[in-house]
Amino acid sequence: MDLHFDISEDERPLFLAETEEHLQSLEQGLIHMERYGEDAEVVQQLFRAAHTLKGMSGMIGHKRMVSLTHALENVLDAIRNNQIQVDSTMIDLALEALDILRSLREEVIDGRESPVDVIGVTSQLAEYLSVPNALNTLNQKIARQQAELAVQTGGTTRIEANISQYSMASAARAYQIILAMEKMGKITYIEPSQAVIETAAPVYHLIANVETDWTAEKIREEIANIDEIDTLLINGEGPRVKGAGFHLRVGIAPDSVASAARAFQVLLALENLGKIIDLIPTREVIESARPVEKMEILFQSENTAQEIKKSLEVVDEIQVGSIEPVDLANFKLSQPAVAAVADKDHPANSDETKKTSAVEAEKNQAGGSKSAPEKVVRTSVEKLDILMNLVGELITDRNRLNQIRNQFEMLYRSDGQVEVLSESVTHIGRITDQLQKEVMSIRMLPVGNVFNKFPRVVRDLANKFGKKLDLIIEGEDTELDRSVIEEINDPLIHLVRNAIDHGVEPPEERLRAGKPERAKVYLTARHEQGRIILTVEDDGQGIDSEKMKKVALKRGLITEADAASMSDDEAINLIFASGFSTAAKVSDISGRGVGMDIVRNNIQRLSGSIMIDTTQGEGTRFQIVLPLTLAIVPTLLVKTAQTTLAIPLVTVLSTLRITDADIKTVNNRPVIVLREKVLPLLDMADVIDVEKNKELDHRYVVVIGSGKLQLGLMVDRLIGQEEVVVKSLGPLIGEVIGIASAAILGDGNVILIADVQDLFRLAGLMYERQI
After folding, report:
1. Could you give the CA distance from residue 700 to residue 690 in angstroms, rounded to a whole number?
2. Which domain holds residue 686?
3. Helix locations, 614-749, DSSP H
């Protein structure tokens, strides 16, 4: 079924981004509570995220999303008010709700209804609230005993509640009041009836008589924990909300693409803290999605001005101008004082308003206000890709200009105009470098965008395998190019799954080995010499190299001779061979022989490398080395015969000059001795199939590394380092063994970029079947 939501194309990206942000925050917080127990601040953040999600989905008319977020909000509200305690059942239900909310979020993208069971999960969340969990049983029993005693000895108390007309689930609020009254004693009369309330029809006014011995103050305290109640009368007396009055001024960034949504978020944040007495612009104006520049609010709350300001600062693109205590009995909002809505009825450009705004801006600037909204512009990824391609072309032209300058300086050394040209080329080079740096920074994203998904993955897998472990994440603020982040997700998931399935032992086995019952899995990121290092590490049982050899022999991946001559490091690297698996049985997680080879292949496509470091009984560490970006790559240019090749600089360890006398042979393979170790050689003339230059009395070796493996590439000449713009070979040429891609030099010549992993395989170091 096609769905239609009240949201524009400009607002859609903002809604999707903020929805995913809140869902991620909820997921992380729930897993944190399950591991470390309830924390008042975490619970409050989760409740606020659910509340904001409900408001956002309500504004665009996403009814199923409103219903589910409201049910989740009620559970978090009960936790916040100490009515229930967090347990595994609640976490499972809440995480299932988040999975469904992600499917509902996709409905806003494609406009088609997702086949998810919203009603079923919503009902389960509601049932969870009505059935006490283990720790709450005693409290519920005491409450029932108090209620029974009240029927015998107490009088009748009249309770009258007005529920906010803006509530998106007023019937649920009414039902919460019923649950609260049942704790007090016996309900002898209620209007509307409970049957009517359970139909989910709107309820804005509720009257009830309760036989109880609770004092009015205790009743008020119990019901005051329920949100969206405007007034509460106990035997005809007393307001629900206590506290001081405040006059708030809030500004919204003029370049905000959804200023009305920001204004609505301000209202939601305030309603968590108290009662909104008056508001300019009106709530109806805000909900009409008309642009809002400023808000003026009369507010009553038991919180301090500092606490109110702190709660508002979580809303993006707003600035809290002032929060002043006022006497609610005598203070009234003044319409002319605020340019609330930018339209003809509320002019925002009067001289007086401009003067006031200028003075306020000057004060904020002088005081270094930290609450001022950051100036941001949202744009599409496609536009960034186009910009990156243009910068790439500019870098190619910069390299060409440098070559022309060098030629002119050699030919016309004394010409003054050549010096002017040289200065201009140098200046253009600096500008190009700065432009490249800025564009790269725009494309950079924190690797936490990937890491933040793993607490949920680890929790689910640990439960599935009956293992106890903690995930420790470090370096999530490390930035990486967006294109690399998109590609690294799958390899990391495979590595983490393998760490939990194969690496980490069951709790009883760890105890027998003298280890802590809870294992640790580390997921880290860091920058190092223009590269990014990602690490997946566990403190499990490690990898048995002898077992690896036996499995490889059994599967026909190596011969007996290979196994006998193979080092431990080479045996452990067999884990990356296609079809290799040590799993005793096939499961939906592992044992199909399609995991680690996919990891290696994906990392190869990123011009990266992966290294294994393992110790039996202590654990295993997988280290992935990646370039920061895939669009522009620093390389070492070399020449073989008449062909120029580029080797990614991230893989180059060193270079050296050799003669024919330095080359030895081991197992019919050329090698040299480098730092008392044998280094295998691969002649690049053989790789690209060109005739070798036999007249040279010496050659050069470029030493490259992949993990612990090293290989020497023999070339005729070293040209130098140069940044090149990577170009795909395209479908017409297809895949070429030993070649990853191409680039265009400044002189217009096309060069080939070597595929380092292919070169290792060609040298026979991976002990795979011949290509």
Report:
1. 17
2. 632-762
3. 684-688, 730-733
Q: For each successive 10 residues of the chain (771 residues), what is the average pLDDT?
A: 80 85 90 84 87 85 88 86 82 91 90 86 80 45 42 68 72 88 89 78 82 88 81 69 78 83 85 84 78 89 83 85 80 51 38 39 38 52 79 82 86 84 88 82 83 88 88 88 82 89 91 91 84 90 88 82 80 78 51 61 77 89 81 85 88 91 87 89 88 86 83 92 78 73 78 83 53 31
Q: What is the rounded distance in angstroms from the CA atom of residue 21 to the CA atom of residue 15?
A: 10
Where is the domain boundary, 208, 234, 260? Answer: 234
Whether residue 453 sits in one domain with residue 439: no
Residues 666 and 753 in one domain: yes
Q: Do the domain assignments include residue 376? A: no
Residue 510 lies in a domain: yes
Same domain, 478 and 578: yes
Last residue of a domain, one of 199, 216, 234: 234
**Domain match, 530 and 638 both:** no
Write the CB contacts of 367 (distance below 8 Å, at least 6 apart in sequence): none
In a shared domain, residues 120 and 158 = no
**508 domain residue, yes or no:** yes
CATH of residue 185's domain is 3.30.70.1110
The answer to whether 241 touches 275, Cβ cutoff 8 Å, is yes
Rounded Cα gap, residues 46 and 52, in angstroms: 10
Check if the beta carbon of residue 753 is closer than 8 Å to that of residue 648.
Answer: yes
Q: Is the peptide bond before 281 cis (omega within 30 degrees of 0)?
A: yes
Non-local CB neighbours of 328 within 8 Å, separated by 6+ positions = 245, 277, 298, 300
The first and second tokens of residue 85, run together, are 């305690």
Greatest Cα pair distance in the chain = 113
Tell me if 379 is assigned to some domain: no
**Separation in Å, CA 643 to CA 537, 550, 701:** 42, 43, 16
The pair of three-digit structure tokens given for residue 724, joined into one six-digit string: 């090149």
Residue 143 sits in the same domain as residue 124? no
Q: What is the pLDDT of residues 222-241, one digit of tens each?
A: 887 888 787 788 887 655 44
* Rounded to 5°, angle at Cα 222 from 218 and 228: 135
Please state, rounded to an integer, the average pLDDT across all residues of the chain: 79
What 3-state DSSP class applies to 286?
helix
* Pairing outcome for strands 469-474 and 519-528: parallel
Where helices occur in 513-643 by DSSP H, the ranges are: 545-554, 560-565, 568-572, 596-605
Nearest 5°: the CA angle 341, 343, 349 is: 85
Domain count, the chain: 6
Sheet of 750-754, strand order: 717-725, 632-640, 643-648, 750-754, 739-744
pTM over 0.85: no
Residues 6+ apart with CB under 8 A from 434: none
Report, in this order, helix, strand and coil percent for the chain, each rounded to 5.
45, 25, 30
Residue 470's nearest CA partner among 459, 483, 485 is 459
- Six-digit token pair at 33? 């509570």
For 251-260, what is each residue's pLDDT tens digit?
998 888 778 8
Q: Can you tell me which residue has the tokens 């609640």?
A: 90
- Distance from C-alpha of 596 to C-alpha of 548, rounded to nearest angstrom: 14
